[in-house]
Amino acid sequence: MTMEYATPYRRASRIPADPGKPYFIEKGEGDRAHLFGDLITIYAGGEQSENTFNFFTVEGPKGNLIPAHLHPDTYEVFYVTAGAVRLFVEDTEGNQQEKLLTPGDFGFVPKNCPHAYRMERHHSQVVGVAAGPGGTFERFFENLGAPADQLGLPVEPVVPEPHKFATVPRQYDVRFLPDHEWRTR
């Protein structure tokens, strides 16, 4: 049996808002949000880890490149569990690289490095972990996108209006780079 908690973000969540409280979540039962064509499921975040890390999955269809962005104070991990995901990253000296990641492959993006990704196969899934002194960004997904109560991908992509990218609160440590160009492909 899993419990549901009321949180500052949702009427009901399987994730307790208090740090230091052990819990278990069944597959897919975390806090969900739709952003672009993807389903993001949060399993642990800032409230549970005293703002030291978050743990989430991103599932999606083959699709478009997620916009270039960076996290000034957050390190991010990409671990592919299904499908294929192309990760684009630029180091702090401006050197760009890309890599096709398939199940079992790992990608690491240091803080302050522009990056983006694209699902290359339908039903791709990435396990993400983000950590850093700036806090965590898991609530960014439902604030830019839309909270989702149901399982599954969005019926229609949730694409924010262009001006909304500039309004992402600084507390989420996400800075979009609308004019960024990838030279790798």
Structure description:
There is one protein chain. The protein is mainly β and 185 residues long. The chain contains two helices and twelve strands. It has helices spanning 46-49, 140-144; strands spanning 31-35, 38-44, 53-60, 69-70, 75-82, 85-90, 96-101, 106-109, 115-119, 124-131, 146-148, 175-176. The strands form three sheets. The protein has a seven-stranded antiparallel sheet with strand order 8-5-10-3-2-1-11. Strands 7-6-9 form a three-stranded antiparallel sheet, with no helix packed on it. The chain has a two-stranded antiparallel sheet with strand order 4-12. The protein is globular. It starts with 30 loop residues before the first strand and ends in a 9-residue tail after the last strand. 34% of the residues are buried.
Q: On the 0-100 scale, what is the average pLDDT?
A: 89
How much helix is in the residues?
A: under 10%
Which range does the strand content fall in?
Answer: 25-35%
How many runs of DSSP E, i.e. beta strands?
12
Euclidean distance between termini CA atoms: 48 Å
- Please tell me what the overall shape is: globular
Number of helices: 2
Query: Which H/E pattern describes the elements?
Result: EEHEEEEEEEEHEE
Can you summarize the main beta sheet?
Answer: 7 strands, antiparallel
Low-confidence stretches: none
What would you call the structural class?
A: mainly beta
Oligomer: single chain
Query: Over the alpha carbons, how many angstroms does the gyration radius reach?
Result: 16 Å
The strands making up the biggest β-sheet line up spatially as 8-5-10-3-2-1-11
